[in-house]
Design brief:
The structure is a single chain. With 190 residues, this protein is α+β, with helices and mostly antiparallel strands. Strand 9 and strand 10 form a beta hairpin. It has a single domain, classed as SMI1/KNR4-like (3-Layer(aba) Sandwich), CATH 3.40.1580.20. The longest helix has 22 residues. A 7-stranded antiparallel beta sheet has the order 11-10-9-8-7-6-12. The protein has a 3-stranded antiparallel beta sheet with strand order 1-3-2, with no helix packed on it. Strands 4-5 form a two-stranded antiparallel ribbon. The chain is built from 5 helices and 12 strands. The relative contact order is 0.17. This is Protein Syd. Its main location: membrane. InterPro entries: Syd (IPR009948), Syd_sf (IPR038228).
Length: 190
Amino acid sequence: MLNSGLSSSLWLFSQNYVEAYKNQLNHLPLVEIDEQWPSSCIVSQFDEQFNTWLPHKVESTLSFENVEKALDVELHTDICQYFTTIFSDSIAANCEHGELSLLFAWSEEDFARLQENIIGHILMKRKLKQKITVFFAITDDENFILSIDNADGSVWVEGIGCEPHKKLADSLNEFIQQLTPFVYQGDHPK
């Protein structure tokens, strides 16, 4: 069963990120121009190096059925919903535990790549005889990711190749509601 609260929280957070970005830098979020990586998120060209972009609601029917069938596993509905609600570049955020970047598919083509990465992650978990998790964010420490426990949908910090070790929230919706947007100003023109 789909969690409409999660979809609403994701969309609201993405819009709050855009507003924070515009308030701090006086323009829409930027992404490097890459003709090989088109997306419905792209709004316009900002300069020779960057395009402006906005999160875009997924209007096509994206599904993890192929992943579930290939791995003979049923993914938690929050995992499926998280990755099929919006197309977006990664979105930087802060939580009480530090900085992170929420990962999303940039386009339908990127969604296929994301599915391959999730398959690889689950196969690694099985090989290590660990419970199944699915990543959805990276942290400011490259050795740790944020993941969703496939059994109950809880949100955890886990070291790469390790069991989750620190529970952050009982659900993804609860976790998203705790976040505040973070606008990184390092690489982008002001």
